[in-house]
Amino acid sequence: MTILDWFLDPAQWAGADSIPVQVGYHLLYSGTALLIALAIAVPLGVYIGYTGRGELLVAGVANALRALPTFGLLVLVVMLVAPHIGSRLAFVGPTIVVLVLLAAPPILSGTVAGIQGADPGAVGAARATGYTRPQILWHVQVPCALPLFLSGVRNATLQIVSTATVAAYVSLKGLGRYIIDGRASSDYTQMAAGAILVAVVALALELAFLGLERAVVSPGLTRAQLPILRRTSRVRPGVVPPASPREATP
């Protein structure tokens, strides 16, 4: 059976283990982890970018989290949690935790870099018109941070979607099932189909984020952030890049 025949097989599109169901579970795990990571990383990133406090500590912790082996960490957390929980939550919870640890560093890095990279001229103009520091943060720095923030969220999303296949290792549903089950039965067509599905989902989300950025971010603001985007793209994921004197908020 070729990969095309596999996709055209009606059995792959109906039933409890169909492609739509597996895609749904994959997106459920990914979306839940992304929302939790946003809830943690965005407030922390705004605080660090605004005050400059704890930047080195958080950068070190973020790098340490990025260095953790995803599969090994998942197995360890499941072994610690499963004996105390008798439901599927013993497997879902650790999977979400691992994905959150993977997603938080790029979101944190993008948020901090965006806040610190706000246009000094805009900040100075706002201060001259009588804006308070909180008003400058929410009305100037946060909007200026959108390009870098969305870039961090996009990177985190792609990493989560690509890594969520590990859920299949702990008997959960998702696109990883095709890869794990195909390997167990030496069905390489199914394995290839699973990998293609993961790539298609990731590509679709990438295009969706590009469309979102075009819709909500001013083209002029995006151009102003290009030097910082290039600089952060050369930094390892999870590293909070230091702001240059001209990019730092006065």
From TrEMBL:
SUPFAM superfamilies: MetI-like
Keyword DNA repair: no
The keyword Ligase belongs to this UniProt entry's keyword annotation: no
Domain of life: Bacteria
CDD domains the record matches: TM_PBP2 (cd06261)
Membrane topology: Multi-pass membrane protein
Cellular-component GO terms for this entry: plasma membrane
InterPro entries registered for this protein in UniProt: ABC_transp_perm/SBD, MetI-like, MetI-like_sf
Residue intervals of the ABC transmembrane type-1 domain: 23-209
PROSITE patterns: ABC_TM1
Key words, A-Z: Membrane, Transmembrane, Transmembrane helix, Transport
Transmembrane spans: 27-50, 56-82, 89-108, 156-180, 192-212
Coiled coil: none
GO biological process: glycine betaine transport; transmembrane transport
Name recorded for this polypeptide: ABC transporter permease
Organism for this UniProt entry: Antribacter soli
